[in-house]
Amino acid sequence: MKVHQLSVFLENQPGRLSQSCKALAEAGINILTLSLADTQQFGILRLIVKDWEKGKRVLEKTGCVAKVTEVVATEVQDRPGGLAEILSVLEEGGVNVEYMYAFTFRREQSAVMVFRFEDPDAAIKVLQAKGINVLDSVELYDLVEPGK
Description:
Layout: E1 2-11, H1 16-26, E2 31-38, E3 42-49, H2 52-61, E4 65-77, H3 82-92, E5 97-107, E6 110-117, H4 120-129, E7 134-135, H5 137-144
Antiparallel strand pairs: 1-3, 1-4, 2-3, 4-6, 4-7, 5-6
């Protein structure tokens, strides 16, 4: 039920983000979703790609430091309060959210959120116990690239 995310450390300079994205494109790797956080000196590009092992190798060849992190993707009701309900479930279960970002795909009345937890297995148990759909890698990739 966990999804592999690449965390790429980039110098905060013109062209570093572009260089990484171009390298992935040239290798035929599609970025399913991403998040970018920065400071004055560096940034962290967090992204999900289907072939994360190849993606990591490609990024490292460009001189980037790339780390693999396990994250959890869930469906969230796409309505006011949908995210608040999931966060309440996590709070009641004593699970802390380290960070999160939205997935760029919507399905029916749901959106997809990506969460990073200190203990993803505990978070998955808490979410599933309340009937929240936790997506595995195959489901997540099939949403974006049906039939591939």
